[in-house]
TrEMBL record:
Highest taxon of the lineage: Eukaryota
Originating species: Panagrolaimus davidi
Name this polypeptide is given: Uncharacterized protein
Length: 91
């Protein structure tokens, strides 16, 4: 897992569910490794990435009508629900 952060955004529903911005910091050593924002430890799903070497990434997740966090999988373009996200760094 790589370095990153999560910051709350503004409420997006009447129930005051907020959005969150997930950021994965650029990994510049060694060799400017490629990163992506993964979803629930599921291979083949990502909220952002892969990045160009040495660049950070960010993705926004929001609460859906059921109060569950969801984002868009950049691999398929489909909406996905999630319980966690993580910064993945290439070996």
């Amino acid at each position: 897992m790589g370095p990153g952060s999560v910051a709350p955004g503004a409420p997006v529903t009447a129930a005051q569910c907020v959005s969150y911005v997930i950021t994965c910091n650029a990994v510049t050593t060694p060799n400017n490794k490629v990163i992506q924002i993964g979803v629930d430890q599921i291979i083949g799903q990502a909220l952002a990435g892969p990045s160009m070497a040495g660049r950070s990434l960010s993705a926004t997740v929001v609460c859906n009508g059921d109060g569950v966090l969801e984002g868009v999988d950049v691999v398929t373009g489909n909406r996905v629900t999630l319980t966690n996200a993580y910064c993945s760094v290439a070996n």
